[in-house]
Amino acid sequence: MWFDSWSDLWRVVAVGACAYATVVLVLRLSGKRTLAKLNAFDLVVTVALGSTLATILLSSDVSWSEGAVALALLAGLQFAVAWATSRLPRGRSVVTARPTLLLSHGVVDEHAMRQQRITHADLRQAVRASGSGDLENVAAVVLEGDGTLSVVPSSQFGSGSALADVPGVPPAVRRTQG
In this structure, what CATH number is given to the domain that contains residue 167? Predict the structure, then answer.
């Protein structure tokens, strides 16, 4: 239980170093999106990469080459989904969550807050973090698909065209995008 053999330890060291280098290479080849803020799909891929690395390191039943193929497969699938979501109109909605408008021109959408399980304290914290001290001075707070809260101050709202893809935004703002 505490120690089996030196050969097992050397296998972990040798395969671990190679597997680590493979993960770094796969992440570099797969691009910046793999390491960006995570949506649900990106999180699954990240966890799967970590789990695969752990399996390569600790299971003598899995060879380094099998693990390298598994890592490359995960990165390839992530690339394919990223490609599809950026080029197919409905592809993005299948994999990522849509943004949700939580506050519009100082008025909190209580239904959206409950539905998204966001507390008033969470909302106020995001507004404070944006440098604003008053909800009345905020044009919009949006819960993004990656779980972050975006705050748009009234002074920087402009035409509101950045909110055109957010459900619940008034139609006048959507028309500015054509």
Answer: 3.30.240.20
Between CA 107 and CA 149 the distance in angstroms is 16
Q: Are 100 and 143 in contact (CB under 8 A)?
A: yes
Of the three residues 94, 116, 135, the one that is the final residue of a domain is: 94
Instruction: State the amino acid at position 171 in one-letter form.
Output: P
Residue 178 reports pLDDT greater than 60: no
Residue pair 60/8 in contact by the 8 Å Cβ criterion:
yes
Whether residue 1 lies inside any domain: the answer is no
Count of domains for the chain:
2
Kindly report, residue by residue over 34-61, the tens digit of the pLDDT: 555 666 777 788 888 889 999 988 888 9
- How does pLDDT run across 117-135, given as a tens digit for each residue? 999 999 999 999 999 989 9
- Please name which of 137, 98, 141 lies closest in space to residue 123, comparing C-alpha atoms: 141
Distance, CA of 61 to CA of 45 (rounded, Å): 22
Residue 30 lies in domain: 6-94
> d(Cα 49, Cα 52) in Å, to the nearest integer?
5
Q: Cα-flanking dihedrals φ and ψ of residue 148, to 5°? A: -80, 155
